[in-house]
# Entry
Amino acid sequence: MNAHFFQITLFFYLSGTIAYLIYLVSSHERAAWSGRHLLGVGFVSHCLTLVLRYIEAGHTPVINFHESLSFFVWMVVGFFLLLRHHYKVEVLGAFVSPLALLLAIWAAVLPKEILPLPPVLRSWWLPIHVTFAFLGDAIFALSFCAGVIYLIQERFVKSKRVGSFSGRLPSLEVLDEINYRALTIGFPLLTIGIVSGAVWAEYAWGSYWSWDPKETWSLITWLLYAALLHQRLAVKWRGKKAAVMAVVGFGAVLFTFLGVNLLKEGLHTYSEWFR
# Structure
């Protein structure tokens, strides 16, 4: 049943992405309205997907690669809808929705069977650690998209090629504010996710930190965002530098989330779960 709802979710995410891309090239407000509402319907369907999978599995559905990608996409879309409600930045959807759609398609082609929960993961720390980590990562995804748009808009402004396309993009000030807000919210959430993971590791493996590949790259990612937050608060970094760092930081997020599981084995890798 949850697989059926995931297919429905994928359809609405695809439709919303198409509508937002039409808005990006045509500026038709009706296309933006359609994109937002199609994503909203897809998000509701995604909520049902996760609830049904939780009921069927009996645990938080974040164990295998399909579940992890699905959970991450759900948070990215949800945070975008909240952000759009606050900032009214429609064009951000033309960048967020393709990212969410690609990850959702990837999740759709992965094995979806529900397998028994490994003993080491049978802990109430699982939903705490994973939820906070994914919350931080999902917000950084929005920061990444805002950073990409900032770099595009800044190029238009510097070259003085201000036209209909650049006019549809938010101002540099708004994009920089979104980037900053995402950083100040996402960084504490990621920190809680890492700390809760360390506490859980001590219970599970007898050590707070084992320099497992995923732990190492989580630390690298945390240090990148910590450096960016420090520069923004202490040195008053703004604009292009912050946007570039948001893009680089999300690259580290993706490698920590996806690359480590695919390329390296460690305590966080359960090969039969991530194939």
